[in-house]
Amino acid sequence: MISLNINDQNYNIDADPEMPLLWAIRDLVGLTGTKFGCGVAQCGACVVHLNGEAVRSCVTKVSRAQNQKILTIEGLSKNNDHPLQLAWNEADVPQCGYCHSGQIMSAAVLLREKPDPTDEDIDQAMSGNICRCGTYPRIRKAIHMAAEITRKGGMAK
Amino acid sequence: MSTPQVSRRNFLRTAGLGSAGLFLGLYLPDAAVAMVMSEEEAVAADVYTELTAWILIKPSGQITLVSHRAEMGQGVYHSIAQIIAEELEVDLASVDIQFAQGNEKKYGSQLTGGSSTIRGAYKNLLKLSASARQVLIMAAAAKWSVPVTECYAASGHVIHKPSDKKFHYGELVVDASKLQAPKDVALKPRSAYKLIGKPLHRKDTPLKTNGQAIFGIDKRIPGMVFAAVERNPRLRGKIKSFDDTEARKVPGVTNVIKIAMGVYDMDREGVAVIATSTWAALQGKKALKIEWDDSGFEHVNTPEIYRKQREVLKTEEGRLLKTQGDPNGIINRSKDILDVVYETPYQSHATMEPLNCIGHHRGDTVEIWGPVQAPNWIQDYISKKMGIAFDKVIVNMTFLGGGFGRKALMDYPHEALVISKAIGLPVQVIWAREDDITQGPFRPGISYRCQGVIENNEVSAVKFRTAGQNNDHFRSGDNGKANRSTSEGWLKPYFETIKNISFADVLFQTPVPTMFWRSVYASTNGFAYESFVNELAHKAGKDPLAFRRQYLKEERAAKLIDKIEEVSGWRNKGKTKGFGIAITECFGTTVAQVVKVSKKKGEKLKIDQVWAVVDCGWYVNPDIIHAQIEGAIVMGLGAATIHEITFKDGLVEQRNFYDYKMPRLTDIPPIEIHIMENDSDAGGIGEPGLPPFAPALTEAIFDLTGKRIRKLPFDMASI
User: Fold this and answer.
1) Which residues on adjacent β-strands are paired with residue B645?
2) What integer best gives the mean pLDDT of chain B?
3) CB–CB of B151/B89 below 8 Å?
4) Where is the 2Fe-2S ferredoxin-type domain (chain A) (predicted)?
């Protein structure tokens, strides 16, 4: 048995310790917001937070996450109202939407560390996340909007 | 998304509409659980009544609208609802949306391709929605015993004007479903629209920012297991033998079986590993040892493909699709012919959501759940291939994490059902990214021979020939006719001014399976043909934009050219270099793009800006149009400058995003988009933004450097 703390809830799962955290979260815990894109840490669709840091869950062994704090897109806010979620909705960023759990989770770490990121900061933090639909111009715009929302007192996590 | 319960009631015929969506009143969520209940029971249970195939209303007033097409990013999940809500007079914010099951009789074609959803359905949807509104008004008037003309509809209610009495739609729907809609319901003029034409927020956006949207890969069915399949890496080979000893040792692996998946004329063999989790299935797949029999077909090499294509284009005339005047005569007698070859690469669709599908074979009924673009094609294919009655093939659509044409093929749903049949359980088959990149089908690589003659600074003849695999022949098996798509992307008004012109294709096949890719033929034709127009302009000594103005005299094209000239700064660019233009037509919509590039000493070539002007006629949501054009430009940038699929000894050389690279946030230039306003019929939007990008970019590079790029992809760093 491996015990995981995801979004402040404890789960005991019967997983091979070698299993990537991604599949434990999706198949064993049943939270499907975190996505499989490449399996080799190239696309960022699987990004979750491990103790507040963005990690590629497709290459993170579930044993490494045991008893650590895991945050997935489902736990980013209760009401879809994290500044990034508000901004993503305001700018209608997603098209197919598949990569955006990972995009938002990557952006959340950026925003926590740099509340008012420059375009260069965004380049650095977000160039590990692929969007095949090409929503990049809106991702950049929404991150700036989210910074603005946070400054004006919107909910920040 | 659960399937709502719906009561059975009598059909209500609406006169004068197409065959699809004729009926108001009957809804069968699943053939197995169709309910029969009395009106009283239906009201008490608050089940949906259907007012047209797209509109479901509960007695409590809750409204669900149906998306009969796949949502893969292009926005129809929202746009269909935005259209219906306009004429139905309901608040878009309060309606739910659900995907239809595959049912061509009810919805018409559900093939989500060719950018066809809105342009194909909007007139019918407007009429049906207005008819539904009208029967609701009639039902209210009857309840009040007042003239219909004293009543009107607003925000999901019918209101009696003189008395201000009102009913919500839920209170009327049972009565309304028994009424016959009037033959001619007046539709709103465009000027009266409250929703259509407005940049409303997409209804699927919130679901895509908190993990709630259910894509195929997220779908779960009670009792389902997972599977991954190792398929022949040369795409056509057979299994000689396999050893599953190690695979069966992987914890969670429960079974290993040999299977075959239908891909066009082939049954592609593979070994399926069934397991209790996706991970275990993928691990088991890696542990398989398979010996393949790759005899009996050509093992292709990319350089060889293009060498052969050039070869046949030298000697063969091909099958003529279109010809006017005497291009051959002029070219044969001319001493100064522009005669060049353009080449475009094979591409993978590489949807972010890898292929996957749940199949459940129950004997005489089969059901699939997955990210599929073509529910009706699946029903037809599975019915024939597996010997199941057509209406016993149940297809459930989820959200698609990208489609781009790949998810219109029936191979992966078929494979899921083959495995389910063998093991007697519902199974989700997942493709690893490496399967997705290496297994195809791919956009075909096509070569274009372009010949042109300029006399007295004017075009006197143009002759286009293509050589490359094409789906027209591959799918139909009819190699006797010309490929109908050879002129796709080419602007029709050129035929008015270029009097001697022809299009032909030279049949060319390889063992590689191919499939439609975003913008289909226009995605590659556009590069060759519009680049060649630029070459003709230069040969004639004309500015490429002015050349198009001269040769595209049709009114809409002329206005489009004026607009792109204005917004891109072309008119005032003076001697500034680095501007390129291209205009293509794709699925009823014409898009002009101007790209501006620059290069500082010692630095990489930079795309400073892209401008796009879109003429799609009638449209629903300008923000979705902007998003689609932005995305299409990014996808066009990747296909033109970053990635391609190549073959060596029959094997695909790329495997994952580390060698089939994608554009990243850092690669994206500023993009400015404008939409033309006119009352013409709606054109498509998902695809038309892609084709003009590559030729506009390469023309900009020519303008800056004098270097003409005729082969894609090219490396921007090499300029």
Assistant:
1) B346
2) 93
3) no
4) 1-76
- The domain that holds B290 is classified in CATH as 3.30.365.10
Report the alpha-carbon distance of residue B412 to residue B512 in Å, rounded: 17
Cβ neighbours of B611 in A, within 8 Å: none
The angle subtended at Cα A121 by Cα B595 and Cα A46, nearest 5°, is 90
Range of the domain at B663: 302-346+443-718
| pLDDT of amino acid A155 | 53
Whether B416 has a pLDDT exceeding 70, the answer reads: yes
Residue B26 pLDDT greater than 50, yes or no: no
pLDDT > 90: what percent of chain B?
A: 90
Token pair 């695909």 is at which residue?
B652
Mean pLDDT of B139-147: 98
Nearest to A36 by CA among A20, A49, A13, A50: A20
| pLDDT interval class at B183 (50, 70, 90) | confident
Q: Which residue of A has its CA nearest to B251?
A: A16
**Cβ contacts (< 8 Å) between A46 and chain B: which residues?**
none
CA distances to A110, A116, B205 from A52, rounded to whole Å, are 11, 19, 25
Query: What is the number of CB-based contacts under 8 A between chain A and chain B?
Result: 183
Quick check: A75 contacting B, CB < 8 Å? Answer: no
Residue B569, SS3? coil
Chain A residues with CB-CB distance to B78 below 8 A = none
Structural domain includes residue B6: no
Please tell me what DSSP assigns to residue B4: P
User: 3-state SS string over A35-63?
Assistant: CCCCCCCCCCCCEEEECCEEEECCCCEHH
| B631 closest CB neighbour out of A26, A28, A133 | A133
Cα–Cα distance list, B12 to B21, B25, B26, B370 (Å): 11, 6, 9, 32
Q: Round to whole Å and give the CA distance between B340 and A149.
A: 54
In this structure, what token pair is assigned to residue B712?
A: 């894609």
| Ramachandran angles phi, psi of B171, nearest 5° | -75, -10
Contact B281, B226 (CB under 8 A): yes
User: Per residue in A112-133, pLDDT tens?
Assistant: 999 999 999 999 999 999 999 9
Under a CB-based contact definition with an 8 Å cutoff, are residues B323 and B286 in contact? no
Write out chain B residues lying below 8 Å of A37, CB-based: 352-354, 433, 657
Confidence of residue B173 (pLDDT cuts 50, 70, 90): very high
- CB of A104 within 8 Å of any CB in chain B? yes
pLDDT per residue as tens digits for the range B189-223: 999 999 999 999 999 999 999 999 999 999 999 99
* Domain end (from B374, B405, B430): B430
B376, HSE (Cβ side, Cα atoms, 13 Å): 14
Query: In this complex, do B211 and A127 lie within 8 Å of one another by their Cβ atoms?
Result: no
The answer to whether residues B713 and B644 touch, using CB atoms and an 8 Å cutoff, is yes
Going by C-alpha positions, the residue among B374, B643, B642, B351 that lies closest to residue B517 is B351
Asked, for residue B211, whether it belongs to a domain, the answer is no
Q: Are residues B419 and B528 in the same domain?
A: no
Is residue B436 a part of any domain in this protein? no
**pTM: predicted TM-score of the whole model, two decimal places:** 0.95
In tens, the pLDDT along B579-592 reads 999 999 999 999 99
- Structural element, H or E, at residue B411: helix B411-423
- pLDDT tens digits, B255-271: 999 999 999 888 999 99
B157 and B53 share one domain? yes
What are chain A's domains? Answer: 2-75 (3.10.20.30), 83-151 (1.10.150.120)
CB-based burial of residue A33 (10 Å sphere; 0-12 exposed, 13-18 middle, 19+ buried)?
A: buried
Q: Are B542 and B406 within one domain?
A: no
Q: Cα dist. B662→B345, B656, B666 in Å? A: 15, 10, 11
**Chain A residues 52-71 with CB within 8 Å of chain B:** none
